[in-house]
Design goal:
The complex is a heterodimer. By secondary structure, chain A is of the alpha/beta class. Chain A contains nine helices and ten strands. In chain A, the strands form two sheets. Chain A has a six-stranded mixed beta sheet with strand order 6-7-8-3-9-10, sandwiched between helices. A four-stranded antiparallel beta sheet of chain A has the order 2-1-4-5, covered by helices on one side. Chain A starts with a strand and ends in an 11-residue tail after the last helix. Mean pLDDT of chain A is about 85; it is low at about 225-235. Chain B has one domain. Chain B has helices at about 5-10, 275-280, 290-300, and strands at about 20-25, 30-35, 40-45, 50-55, 60-70, 75-85, 90-100, 105-115, 120-130, 135-145, 150-160, 165-170, 175-185, 190-200, 205-215, 220-230, 235-245, 250-255, 260-270. A ten-stranded mixed beta sheet of chain B has the order 2-1-5-7-9-11-13-15-17-19, covered by helices on one side. In chain B, strands 3-4-6-8-10-12-14-16-18 form a nine-stranded mixed beta sheet, with no helix packed on it. In chain B, strand 1 and strand 2 (about 30-35) form a beta hairpin. The longest helix of chain B has 12 residues, at about 290-300. The radius of gyration of chain B is 20 Å and the shape is globular. The chains are: A alpha/beta, B mainly beta. Chains A and B meet through helix 2 and helix 3 of A and helix 2 and helix 3 of B.
């Protein structure tokens, strides 16, 4: 179980997150959604240790991990897929998968890992993780590096960003499979209804606070009930 | 050969060791071992220290190894090696210098390699340099590519060389291409300079230079390249460096188009390791030091 207790984040005198309290239970697929700038990425980065909260605690299975480093958190089972996958010079898909799996595996063993995201190892094994790969390929490899770790907590920051429709269809089937197989916690930041459909819970984050937690219909309905309109009260 | 010799040879040979067809090992200024065959002959030069290598026309894939090892402190070794590659031959040449001097009197190796490459040839030339002790290495390579040739040159220098001044000059004929991959890492107070001059003389000639280097501690590097397009040609020079601590890298990639159909590109980037790369590897469980090592090893692979 993962608990975020009184988490706040203030940067350049701006409140990014304001006293967030939330519990993520095991065996749950949670989608965090909300408008741009609501603090979603910051929240999940705090879980991974990439951002430090201004106040509050991160508690995993009863243990306070707030001051743990990124790699320490990785080694206790937290994994993170970046919205914009990182590119390298000289590091190949094979190298990255070996690091993710944390063992010196042969190329054939990487096959299972890559095939889960619809890629064939022989086409990618010696490819460098750089700009010669398409957005969809980089995204799928990024997801594979998380899934390879079989983590307790798998975090995906806008996995649909920058990929085409056909890759996206493949992505939703990957998440459907993950939902069925994983015993841990899966947290996905997304704006896509098809991914919200998979969720056990949807968290609506707005202006740095949790507005609502519910299922997809409840969240979408609450967004459209909001009468605030850029035209103003007089509907000009 | 003793254990030190074998260890030096291992450090400057190919990672996937391939048994050579032809061999010439030079140790402390003298020929230690030589092996030739019916297609490739090696003769000592008469007026200078060094060898002439003759590869017969149409020699199908042959592997030559011509390493230099220096185990004597204070030795200054200058050697001239000329390679004459007959038309339509396919050869792989491993060269390089390994220095081991326990007594810390500086050893110096100046190697001047000239390649006259005939029509239709494919040549791969790999040069690795290694030093345990105090050593300066000044390799000069001159390449003359005739028509329809392809040459790949790889140079590797990973720590240990006190001072290195590498000069490479190439003249490229019609429909011929030269690819140069350079990898350099300097540490402590080391200095490494690379100077490329390439004349894209022939029609449809091309050159692609990729230099990747890492400078740490108080080390210094200079990268200078001058690619001149004298015909319809293509040239691409890419210099990429990572700096750390007080490492310093200066890059001056020059391109000079003297023909309206010359297509020349140069790129240079110097900087510390991108934070996001470190973070990504840390999310895979590596600590910061391990992540840095992984990134540098991949960069210089």
């Amino acid at each position: 179980m993962l608990e975020l207790r009184n988490i706040s984040l203030i940067k350049d005198n701006k409140v990014i997150l304001n006293d967030i309290n939330i519990i993520f239970s095991n065996d749950k697929f949670v989608v965090i959604t909300g408008p741009n700038g609501s603090g979603k990425s910051s929240l999940v980065k705090i879980i991974m240790g990439i951002e430090k909260p201004s106040s509050g605690k991160v508690i995993l299975d009863g243990k306070d991990i707030t001051n743990m480093s990124i790699d320490e958190r990785a080694n206790i089972g937290i994994s993170f897929a970046f919205q914009n996958p990182v590119k390298f010079k000289g590091i190949t898909v094979y190298d990255l998968l070996k690091l993710s799996l944390n063992k010196d595996v042969c190329k054939r063993e990487c096959c299972d890992t890559l095939s889960e995201v619809g890629l064939c190892i022989k086409d990618y094994v010696d490819r460098e993780v750089n700009g010669t790969l398409s957005g969809g390929e980089l995204k799928r490899i990024e997801i594979a590096t998380v899934m390879a770790r079989n983590p307790k907590i798998a975090i995906f920051d806008e996995p649909e960003a920058g990929i085409d429709l056909w890759s996206f269809q493949r992505l939703t089937s990957v998440f459907n499979a993950l939902r069925k197989q994983s015993k841990g916690i899966t947290i996905v930041i997304s704006h896509q209804e098809k991914i919200l459909d998979i969720a056990d819970e949807v968290v609506l984050l707005q202006n740095g606070i949790i507005e609502k937690i519910g299922n997809k219909e409840e969240i979408i309905n609450s967004i459209f009930v909001d009468k605030t309109c850029c035209l103003g009260d007089n509907n000009e | 050969m003793n254990n030190i010799d074998n260890e030096l040879l291992k450090n400057i040979s190919d990672d996937n060791y391939v048994k050579p067809d032809v061999l010439n090992i030079r140790k402390n200024g003298e020929v230690l071992e030589r092996k030739i065959n019916e297609d490739i002959n090696i003769i000592n030069k008469k007026d200078l220290s060094g060898i002439d290598v003759f590869v017969k026309e149409r020699t199908s894939l042959a592997v030559l190894q011509i390493p230099v090892i220096i185990t004597m402190g204070g030795l200054k070794d200058t050697v001239y090696n000329d390679f004459n590659i007959g038309d339509n031959s396919n050869v792989i040449i491993f060269a390089g210098c390994g220095i081991h001097n326990k007594d810390s009197h500086k050893s110096v190796h100046n190697g001047i390699h000239r390649f006259n490459i005939g029509k239709g040839c494919k040549v791969k030339y790999i040069e690795k340099h290694y030093c345990e002790g105090v050593g300066d290495i000044n390799p000069t390579t001159e390449i003359y590519l005739d028509d329809n040739c392809k040459m790949e040159m790889e140079t590797v220098q990973i720590k240990g060389i006190n001072y290195a001044n590498r000069k490479t000059k190439a003249v490229i004929g019609n429909n011929s291409s030269l690819i140069i991959n350079e990898k350099i890492m300097t540490e402590k107070e080391e200095y490494a300079k690379t100077d490329f001059i390439v004349n894209l003389k022939g029609e449809n000639s091309s050159v692609h230079v990729v230099s990747r280097s890492v400078a740490i501690d108080n080390s210094n590097q200079e990268f200078i390249s001058n690619v001149e397009g004298n015909n319809k040609c293509y040239g691409h020079v890419e210099c990429d460096s990572i700096i750390k601590d007080k490492g310093n890298v200066k890059a001056i990639p020059m391109i000079n188009a003297k023909h309206v159909e010359a297509n020349l590109i140069h790129e240079a980037s110097i900087g510390k390791i991108a934070g996001e790369q470190l973070i990504k590897l840390m999310t895979l469980g590596l600590n910061e030091k391990e992540a840095e090592t992984e990134i540098i090893n991949g960069f210089l692979k």
